[in-house]
Amino acid sequence: MEKARIALLLVALAAALALPFTAGPFWTGLVTQMYIFGLLALSVDLLLGHAGLFSLTHASFFAVSAYTVAILHVRYDVPTALAAPAGILAGTLLALVFGLAVRTRGVYFILITIAFGYVVWGVAHRWSSFTGGDNGVTNVPFPAIGAAAITSHTQYYYLVLAAIIVCGLGYRVFMRSPFGLGLRGIKASESRMQSLGFRTSAHLYAAFVLSGALASFAGVLYVYYNKFVNPVAASFPVSVEAALMAIVGGTGTIIGPFLGAAVVLGLRNWVSSFFEMHASIMGAVFIATVLWAPQGLVGIAGRIRARWRKARRG
Amino acid sequence: MLTSAVLQAINGVSLAALLFLLASGFTLSFGLMRVVNMAHGAYYLLGGYIGLSIVQKTGSFALALAGGGAAIVVLGYLIDRFLIRRTGENHLAQVLLTVGVAFVLGDVALQIWGGDNLMVPAPAFLKGAVVLPGGVYYPKYRFVLIFLGVIVGLVLWLLYRKTQLGAVVRAGVDDREQVNATGINVDRLFVMVSALASFLAGMAGVAGGAFLTLYPGAEWEILVYALVVVIVGGLGSLEGAMIGALIVGLLDAYGRWLLPEFSYFVLFGPIALLMLFRPRGLFGRDH
Amino acid sequence: MAENALRIDELAKVFGGLAAVDGVSLTVPAGERRVLIGPNGAGKTTLFHCITGTLRPTRGSVKLFGRDVTRLAEYRRTALGMGRTFQITNVFPDLTLGENLALAIVGTDRRKWVLHRPMQAYEGVRNQALESLERVGLAGRADQPAKLVSYGERRQLELALALNTRPRVLFLDEPCAGLSPAERQRISQMIAGLPRDITLLMIEHDMDVALGLADRVTVLHQGRVILEGSPDEVRANAQVRDVYFGHA
């Protein structure tokens, strides 16, 4: 099966590389979004699939990072080489503060992250003198470092593709590391982990900050793609959808969140062309996923594979 | 200055009354049934809109309050029976499911009542201003809300602390096995508490819709406030909902007055402090 | 070594109005095998929880090799040499047996914080895990998920997990609970075969197993120590028989 998986990945890579030439600007833009939100979903899944914590505040890091980059470029003419890292840093600093939430578990944790997320949205919305209020910050340029400058959406597409491949590979190492295994241990039995010598709150805090940093990186990629940012980027639906993408695609995997992003964004895009009630469709997807496909697409694929193997043996 | 401070306090307490109506149902639902219902905000909004339509058709505010509440009782029952029940005690699933329900309800409400800011017309004898000592005019309706909040709070508290039924619910909040063991019909108890929570949410929508406007998105704003109340007060505690509502209401009023652009930070402060010293909330317990 | 491995002074744990542990004092010299017996509800597991840090005692103190650990968090007690098994098996069901053990092995050292190298790169950990599995009779099963393993085998895994935290004092909470006679034999042999430099404190219901493994026995009843002595003394004692067979 390993060979089949590698072959599949290579095919996917080839398709991804060829996309701008085979499908045109509309699809290039949409797939870029899938990569960016897939990365956001991956950051949520770091906590959900590995540590068992359901965070609904990741849009906060995403947005804070995006706003930082936007404001630095648009108002202070700061170049990409400084603005982009500053964005990631800002989001990560916020994660260091919001990481307080790991002092709680279960429902409490979920509710607290929701409340934290709203604080950021509220500030983005009300502090208009700084954030531009509902209008947000517009006219963000393409990234450029020295002589290397992005000048088209197609070029940006490849930059984002490269970025998520690098993140994916790094995530893979992280997943298999002792720290990653420790998180899965905490998810399985926190009490056992403590009796084995793990200071579980410290591990969860570190994981939270790490996932916040990843979400911040997604925010940087987002603002250069979108060229503007407004409070919607910090809103609850964005956080919740990121979690949904991880679940629809399959938690605990690397490819799952990206598949989920493809499904959710693709579905919304398709449906909105003939049906006005987008929110209802999103709502229906949530309900359907919870009731019928809690393991997500990767889980469904796993079940199909298992049945196929059984049939072959039988 | 002092007059303003007092006025803000009344503002805060009137908001607290409204938040209590919403938060009390949410916290008891969780305490007894371990259900997290993120559609509670949507219940508020829908209840408000339905109440609005009732006033438009019949002219009766009282009927609107009752009708808005009743409509949500029915809706809440259906959602509970056919959807929420299927998630067992999986809180993650409950959150996702009820968020999905809230998205659908919000969208349906948008289609029926549109996107404009609407207000439920209150009867004339409740509107208008009262003159406070010092010659200050203040909206009468806010006092009505406080009155309503106090009445409901008193009734709930008496039911909860002084009746057999309340004792059973309290025992259930403490330990569900106990309730099962006493042979009381647990299912019926759950349905009753759930209905009460739904009724309060729907009624709160009508009451709130007469001084705060109803609009798409309001369901999330009010839900977050209710969540903060419940976090601060502790999940499952009625007293916690009361104290939490007061704290949040007052902080919000003073925050908006003193630091309008950072008023949401004022909500953040107590949560952050609480995380440091009492992660379970003021009256919460380990579940 | 002059210090005792474990010293408990007037330990009490009160829940609501009920004292589950009501003033227990106990001293276990290094290397001894002490068994704790007593009827259900005597407070044995609660006592364990207070000693290992799962619960905070209401009063009293716990000293490990002379060091006061009463207020220390559980993970720090483990780092100081306390290992334990749980009465209800507490392993990691979705992880493989090898992964279960890997966690136990790195739990007490800095490697658990590494996030840039895969666990597989740590040959030492892998070898130790495989060796451990062999010793508890689970050889060759390293890649099986723990949830697919039988109950008896899970108990063996419990023991292996505790042993890999490099304990100086090992707390075993009913290691034979729910096992068939053959499995019981196996586990007691494993325990008997443990090196003598590990001090053992064991809760056990099965009198034969208990008295067979013990150097000394402490009898608990209603949260208090009612007798302490050699296995023969306890076996012969009338009060103990009453307490166990229902006259007390």
Concise summary:
The complex is a heterotrimer of chains A (314), B (287) and C (248). Chain A contains 13 helices and two strands, in the order αααααββαααααααα.
What structural category do the secondary elements of chain A indicate? mainly alpha
User: How many domains make up the coordinates of chain A?
Assistant: 1
Strand content of chain B: under 5%
| Overall pLDDT level of chain B | 87
Number of strands of chain B: 2
The CATH architecture category of chain B equals Orthogonal Bundle
**Spans of chain A with pLDDT under 50 lasting ≥5 residues?**
none
The residue-averaged pLDDT of chain A reads 91
- The poorly predicted ranges of chain B are none
Helix content of chain A: over 70%
Account of the 3D structure:
With 314 residues, chain A is an all-alpha fold. Chain A has helices spanning 2-51, 58-76, 80-98, 106-126, 128-131, 153-176, 178-188, 190-195, 200-226, 236-249, 255-271, 278-292, 296-313, and strands spanning 144-145, 148-149. Chain A has one domain (23-243). Chain A has a two-stranded antiparallel sheet. The mean pLDDT of chain A is 91. The N and C termini of chain B lie far apart (45 Å). By secondary structure, chain B is mostly helical. Chain C is α/β, with parallel strands linked by helices and 248 residues long. Chain C folds into 2 domains: 1-81 and 167-248, P-loop containing nucleotide triphosphate hydrolases (Rossmann fold, 3-Layer(aba) Sandwich), CATH 3.40.50.300; 93-164, no CATH class. In chain C, helix 3 packs across helix 4 (123-135) and helix 3 (97-106) packs parallel to helix 5. The mean pLDDT of chain C is 88. Chains in contact: A-B, A-C. At the A-C interface, helix 6, helix 7, helix 8 and helix 9 of A face helix 2 and helix 3 of C.
What does the secondary structure layout of this molecule look like, with pairings?
The complex is a heterotrimer of chains A (314), B (287) and C (248).
Chain A: H1 2-51, H2 58-76, H3 80-98, H4 106-126, H5 128-131, E1 144-145, E2 148-149, H6 153-176, H7 178-188, H8 190-195, H9 200-226, H10 236-249, H11 255-271, H12 278-292, H13 296-313
Antiparallel strand pairs in A: 1-2
Chain B: H1 2-33, H2 40-58, H3 61-82, H4 91-113, E1 129-132, E2 136-139, H5 140-162, H6 164-174, H7 176-181, H8 186-209, H9 218-233, H10 238-258, H11 263-277
Antiparallel strand pairs in B: 1-2
Helix pairs in contact in B: 1-5, 1-6, 1-8, 1-9, 1-10, 2-3, 2-4, 2-8, 2-9, 3-8, 5-6, 9-10, 10-11
Chain C: E1 4-15, E2 18-29, E3 33-37, H1 44-52, E4 59-64, E5 67-68, H2 74-79, E6 82-84, H3 97-106, H4 123-135, H5 151-163, E7 169-173, H6 181-192, E8 199-203, H7 207-213, E9 216-221, E10 224-229, H8 231-236, H9 238-245
Parallel strand pairs in C: 3-8, 3-9, 6-7, 7-8
Antiparallel strand pairs in C: 1-2, 1-4, 4-5, 9-10
